[in-house]
Write a structure and sequence with these properties.
Blueprint (H helix, E strand, L loop, with lengths): L3 E6 L22 E9 L6 E8 L2 E6 L4 E5 L5 E4 L12 E9 L2 E12 L2 E12 L2 E10 L11 E6 L4 E5 L17 E5 L21 E4 L3 E7 L6 E6 L5 E6 L34 E3 L5 E6 L12 E5 L4 E8 L2 E8 L7 E6 L5 E5 L3 E5 L1
Antiparallel strand pairs: 1-2, 2-25, 3-4, 4-5, 5-6, 7-8, 8-9, 9-10, 11-12, 12-13, 13-14, 15-16, 16-17, 17-18, 19-20, 20-21, 21-22, 23-24, 24-25
Amino acid sequence: MKKVLLTLSLSSFCFLLSICVFGNENIVVNKEYKLSTIFQTERSEVIWGFDFISKDELVISLRSGKLYYFNILTNEKIQLEVPDIYSSGQGGLLDVHFKTLQGIDYIYFTFSLKVGKVVTTALARGEYKNKRLENLKTIFKANVKSDSSSHFGSRLVFTDNHLFMTIGDRGERKYAQDLSYHNGKILRLTFDGRAAKGNPFESKPDALYEIWSYGHRNPQGIDINPVNQKIYSAEFGPRGGDEVNIINKAKNYGWPIITYGREYWGFKIGSTHKKGMEQPLVYWTPSISPSGMAFYTGDKIKEWKNNLFLAALGGSHLRRLVIKDDRIVSQTVLFKKLGERFRHVRTGLDGYLYVSTDSGKIIKIE
């Protein structure tokens, strides 16, 4: 596979100012960045997730249900084993992470699973050995109310001792407020998929012990702020009302009781404020459709250090958020001229930023 190199000079456009209601948005970018397409699917397929095994090796998940090992230097590509996956609508093979625990290399991945008439979100892991997965096990299945193929959520982030997993409302919004279902929740799990000790609702009758926070619509981005170790998440609103939130224990993030979005046909949904419910750090109306997100922790692009990046499907851009003391101080729209739907973003082990697209590309940014 040949690498495709692009050099873009990015400039601002007045119409971009309408993208976000946030008042301090900065759209001016003059620096040139080199973009290299390091991976391309044979057909145009959604690359929902990817992670680095080493500086030059990746594991890549296609929503269609394929999981790949890929070597950037040699272009070696190997399909890895996965369980039966229900690939329909927004469902399929979703996030993927490489994680070493007590000297054992694991690949974790999330996927949509049909159990009878219910379609749910599941988490699996396998031991990674010699470019193969062994002892593959499904370690968690969400208890949801839904037979739809939408709003799976399903991003993962690891702390030193726990695994956080996002679950969308599955198109059944009322259950986002119901602690007896996983719809519209962020979960805190052990590395083997069990409810972590000390979760906020473990002593509450009828509540599911895995729940860490609730009242979410469709959170598809989650990462840890390297400055203060706080957990940030991004989620899709309906028509407008996309959000970034700081995720705290036991907090209610409001959906569908409060939101800055509207029904797709224009009617209002609830209100925007209610006592006991969290306000977003930032929201966007019209929508930008934030999917994957990552704090840039590399050292190659100095001005981006510790900035938050959102892969925005709507408006086809990568969005940079500069954060100070848990406040958004500026925003930048990047790479809109490419016309790509950006699906996920990660810092590589080489210190550069990487993005994936719905057209089947992984792009390195230098």
